[in-house]
Amino acid sequence: MAVRCITCKGRGLCGRPVCPLLIKLEELAALPRIGNRLSGESPPEVFVGRHGYPVVRAGPLVPVGASPGQPALDIFRIISMRTRMIRSELEIHVHDAKKPGRLLESAQHIAMSSKPVETEVSFVKPPEGRMLFDGVLSPMGPGGRIEDMDITGNPSVPRKVDQLVGDTDVRASSAVCELYSSSISIDHISRLLSMGLLGHDRRLVPTRWAITASDDIIGNALRSRVLDMPEMVGYELYSGGILGNHFEILLMPGAYSFELIEIWHPGSAWSPERLWIGSDREGSTGRRSYSTLAGGYYAARLPVLEHLLRIKRQAGVLALREITEEYWAPLGVWVVRDAARAALSSRPMRFESLDEAIRSAESRMRSKSSDWRRYSNAFSRQTTLLSFFPAQGKECVSGREHNPT
């Protein structure tokens, strides 16, 4: 069961109508009782489902009571807060994003806002159903079909967002990169993409697809810039994480490459019975197919590329993600992204050899390299010319713009 669960992640590949792991999680969630009408501040957050595509269910998430705000770093508290996020749903064709009706247009205005938006929603009948857990999305409470919706507050729309939403000549991928360069958050960008507000041919995009697409589009743009940087000299290791997701991220001499190894321990979210290890990778030309590690691959790669740009180096990257039983419920790929960023914000440890770096990483991990080494290509990397001249290499490094503190 564990092998199927880790590769399926709730998508029903086992043939069962409902994922038994998700049923267990839902039993822990005390779902709120809701009437036919709900008002509150959308965080702002919107949801577009994928079932039935191209006719999907879409709408803003509205909290029962006060808006949850930023999640606390405790899984019980996060799930408790997320149960109050009620999905308000319109059944709509994805191409209706081009000429939205009043209700969809209101949802789009919420997606454009950078701050919570006061919203009133009335439902055909009280929201009901299961709590939604997913490997990419944050957990969400039950959903209900919208009868009517009004925005009672003023959305706070950044100027760059307003500009690019109004520009139908710019490609969606270009708009995503321009928004990112203007310090618009990745969550905000994925909302805009999901609600069909970017690009020429505008359409609604299921939220889980939009999240991964945003990570991928931005990552590919950053990689093209990283390839113009000089190569790393020596080995640098970064360590850290959050919520039972621990990263050891090793930067190695050579041209850019990225390899992610995931080590799921028994009792973690998708590996209840036994240890599971998987890996995926890319070289300087990127990937041509979707990663076997799904959205977590792109979420882990983005902070790495951001870091390489900060230190103005390209490198071979080995990212080890170890998931323990502390991460017993899936909370979305934001956890992967934030855990990798937490690791990369640590002080780097420097080593002369790959073996020294791996021994250091092992000292903070539950698993040993003998468990996962055969899943990696890092150990077959050719020795670079600079590695034969460690003294000269250090002199080169000392003159670069890199402040590890």
Percent of residues in helical segments? 25-40%
Number of helical elements: 13
Strand content: 15-25%
- First CA to last CA: what distance? 44 Å
Can you write the helix and strand succession as a string? Answer: HHEEEHEHEEHHHHEEEEHEHEHHH
How many structural domains? 3
What summary fits the major beta sheet?
Answer: 6 strands, mixed
Q: Please identify the structural class as seen in this structure.
A: alpha+beta
Coarse shape:
globular
Instruction: Write out the strand line-up for the largest beta sheet, numbering strands in chain order.
Output: 1-5-6-4-3-2
Radius of gyration: 22 Å
User: How many DSSP E strands?
Assistant: 12
Ranges where pLDDT stays below 50 over 5 or more residues in a row are 382-405
Mean pLDDT: 88
Structure description:
The protein has 405 residues and is α+β, with helices and mostly antiparallel strands. It has helices spanning 2-8, 20-28, 75-82, 102-112, 159-165, 172-181, 186-194, 207-226, 295-311, 334-344, 354-362, 369-372, 390-398; strands spanning 37-42, 46-48, 55-63, 85-93, 117-123, 143-151, 235-242, 245-252, 257-264, 276-282, 316-323, 349-351. The chain folds into 3 domains: 2-151, no CATH class; 159-226, no CATH class; 235-398, no CATH class. The strands form 2 sheets. The protein has a 6-stranded mixed sheet with strand order 1-5-6-4-3-2, with helices on one face. Strands 10-9-11-8-7-12 form a 6-stranded mixed sheet. A hairpin with a 2-residue loop joins strand 7 (235-242) and strand 8 (245-252). Helix 7 (186-194) crosses helix 8, helix 8 runs parallel beside helix 9 and helix 9 runs parallel beside helix 10 (334-344). The longest helix has 20 residues, at 207-226. It is globular. The two termini are 44 Å apart. The relative contact order is 0.13.
